[in-house]
Each structure stands twice: as C-alpha cells, then as structure tokens.
Design brief:
About 50% of the residues lie in helices and about 15% in strands. It has 15 helices and twelve strands. The strands form three sheets. Strands 3-2-1-4-8-6-9 form a seven-stranded mixed beta sheet, sandwiched between helices. A three-stranded mixed beta sheet has the order 5-10-7. Strand 2, helix 3 and strand 3 form a beta-alpha-beta unit. Helix 2 packs parallel to helix 3 and helix 12 crosses helix 13.
C-alpha cells in the first residue's frame, strides 16, 4: 500500500513536470525577442520621457544615464529623480549634465524627490513624481541599474505603434556575478516561463494573463493616466505587475517581450542583496497569502527537491527501483528546463551557468528559505526594510 502511494505521488510529480516543460518549450518558441530597429520612421516620431527613479545608486547611475542620453531618438527627455539619496547619486547626475554640450543639456534633467508620504512605497512615489513632471506622449520607466543599447527607445516605440500596444514590458539580460545572483536571479525567468503562457499576454484580454517588469515599462500616456498611474498602486511592492493588470482590465493592449539584445540589468550586486531584495518581494508575489505561500513551498520542494533527495538516499535506504527511476526522471526534467532557459537567456559565463543547472534543487531550497524570510519580515514589528526605509505591514498591500 505504501509503495503504491509513493509511486502514485511520483507519477503525479512527473506529470506536473512534463506539463511545465511543455509550456516552457512553447514559450521559448513564442516569446518574441525585440531586435534593433534600423528602418527609418515613416512619419513623425512621438515624444518620449524616460523616467528613472534613483535612490542610493552611485555605483550604477552613471552607466545608466549615459546609455539613456545616447539614445538614437530625436524627441526625447531623460528625467532622473534623486529619491533623497544619502550617497553621491545626485552629484553624479549633475556632473553628467554639466559635462554635456550646451545643445544637449536640455535632454537630461535632475529632479529632487519630496519626502515620502506614510502610505506610499518609495519607488512608487518617485515614479509618480516623475510622471507628474514629464510632458511627453510616452512614459518610459526604467531602473537605475539598467543599461540600454542606443536603439532601445526607437525599437520599443516602433513595436508599440506597429502593434497598437499601450504598454510594453520586457525581460532584460541579467548580469550575474556573485554566487547568490547566479543561483537565485535566473529563477525569475524560470517561474514566469514555466507558469505563464507568454504569447497570451498580448493575445488575450484577461488581466490574470500578464506580468510586468519595472526594469522596462513603457506606457502611452493616456492609458497610464486612465488607470490612475502609480497613485493606484502607491502601497504595493509589486507595482509593475499590478499596473500591467490594470492596463488590461481597462481594455488596453499590452505586450511582454524579450529585450535582452537591448537592455541589461544587474539587479543585485552581492548574495546579501539578493537575499534582502527577494525577501522584500517574494511574499508579495503570493499576495501576502499564507495559504498560497505554503502551497508554493510544498510544490517547489515536492517537484524539485524531493526527487534528488530520494536519489541521494539510495545508498542508505532500499527503495523500489521504479521509485528511483521516477525520481531520476523528475530531476532530469527539472535540469532540462533550467538548461533550456540558460541556453536562451545567457551569453556571459555560459559554461558556469550550464554547470549550475545541475544545482537547480539548491536554488529552489534557497528560494524557499527566502520566502520564509519574506513571510517573517512581513509579520515582524519592524516590517520590511529596503534602502534605508521601513515598511510596516499595515502600510503595505
């Protein structure tokens, strides 16, 4: 009886993994890769405001700003809001402005953020202020840790206009250095492309079939204002996803594309930053639901951790051969999924990244620990802390 139950469980695990692998393969074929546009515009190009919220970004702001002011796009302004940084972020941006030729200085503006209201998340309030200041037709939000190819804005706008798209969001190339980055950050892409049919983000109107990435969110101004802009998500950690859902709920069209040829991003710069950054977001991903979080923990451990543990236990415990075979197939399916994603989205340190695919169960265990820490942060009296700011549970949604 016990053996029958174990075999039934392993068969179920294999069935789920097979479905995830199938969806991943479909996504890899249908996930549109945004490529550099070289054709000349057929008419007048719309005006674009690039909006960069920046808080304590002295290590990366110069590279980001230089890539933005170098955009090969005529009707463009770059607005950087210094969100009360305690480092040299504002001074660096001002030096770049001062060094520009007089004819180009009007392209880059430095704004100084107002004090954060109690019911706002810091980044959301910074983006709101930027949108209030911007005057152009398109609002191109991006993070201070991104670097953009010179044709990024033109390519994004051309694609949006050709497809009558009111919001475009994208997956950039992730720059990974520390071991924590190498093990954890790729799980973002793994989660999206094994759970979300990405082609349906553009083809279907349901708000549930969407995602958003604050590293690149380009809105047509009218839909952004119609959904309430960042005011509508002022207390939400995962504002990018909620904004994307609101766009669809209001009847507008959006697209999620692969922009790794145009945009790169190093989200976190150490294993410690990975731990704190993901701890800030992960429980919010499950809508602060203990039930959903517990289910995610169970499924991740059952699908990706239990099978290799069974294989490792075979020298110590006598297990049915069919059970060991099923566990081996389950582990192989997980590794294959990780390998496929690595081959598609990795260009730097590819050999190392392919080797780390074998350690997918380790990545999952770390993610589970981060989720537990995220839950703890949410319920502790101190709340969630990020970039020197404290967000209490009653202020977050």
């Amino acid at each position: 009886m016990g053996q029958t139950i174990l075999i039934l469980i392993t068969d179920t695990i294999l069935g789920i993994l097979s479905v995830l692998l199938l969806l991943l393969i479909i996504n890899l074929f249908t996930f549109y890769r945004l490529c550099t546009t070289t054709n000349a515009a057929s008419g007048a190009t719309p005006s674009v405001s690039i909006l960069v919220p920046a808080r304590n970004e002295e290590h990366c702001i110069a590279a980001c700003v230089h890539s933005l002011i170098s955009q090969q796009y005529e009707h463009l302004e770059v607005l950087v809001l210094d969100d009360q940084s305690s480092d040299a972020t504002a001074a660096i941006v001002q030096r770049i402005i001062d060094s520009l030729p007089p004819a180009q200085q009007g392209r880059l503006h430095l704004l100084h953020g107002a004090p954060l209201p109690n019911d706002w998340i810091g980044k959301n309030f910074a983006c709101h202020q930027l949108a209030q200041y911007a005057q152009n037709e398109y609002l191109f939000f991006t993070d201070a840790d991104t670097i953009h190819a010179p044709q990024t804005v033109k390519t994004v706008i051309d694609y949006m206009q050709s497809g009558s798209i009111q919001l475009l969001t994208a997956q950039p190339e992730h720059v990974l250095e520390s071991l924590g980055e190498l093990l954890i950050v790729p799980l973002l892409c793994f989660t999206i492309l094994t759970l979300l049919p990405v082609a349906l983000v553009h083809l279907r109107p349901e708000p549930s079939l969407t995602t958003g990435n604050g590293q690149l969110l380009c809105f047509h101004r009218s839909p952004y204002e119609a959904i309430g802009g960042h005011v509508a998500v002022k207390g939400h950690i995962l504002e990018d996803i909620l904004l994307a859902r609101a766009v669809k709920a209001a009847g507008y069209r959006m697209a999620f594309v692969d922009a790794m040829n145009l945009v790169s991003c190093r989200m976190y710069r150490s294993s410690k930053e990975v731990w704190t950054g993901f701890s800030k977001n992960l429980f919010a991903f499950y809508n602060y639901s203990l039930v959903f979080a517990a289910l995610a923990l169970f499924l991740n451990l059952a699908l990706f951790v239990a099978p290799p543990l069974l294989i490792l236990a075979t020298p110590l415990v006598t297990l049915p051969s069919i059970l060991v075979l099923s566990a081996s197939i389950a582990y192989a399916l997980a590794v294959i999924m990780h390998l496929l994603l690595t081959l598609r989205f990795t260009r730097v340190k590819r050999g190392l990244m392919l080797l780390l695919c074998l350690f997918h169960p380790v990545s999952i265990v770390l993610e589970c620990l981060i989720l537990l820490n995220s839950i703890w942060w949410h319920y502790r009296k101190k709340g969630t802390v990020w970039k020197g700011r404290q967000y209490l549970r009653e202020c977050m949604k």
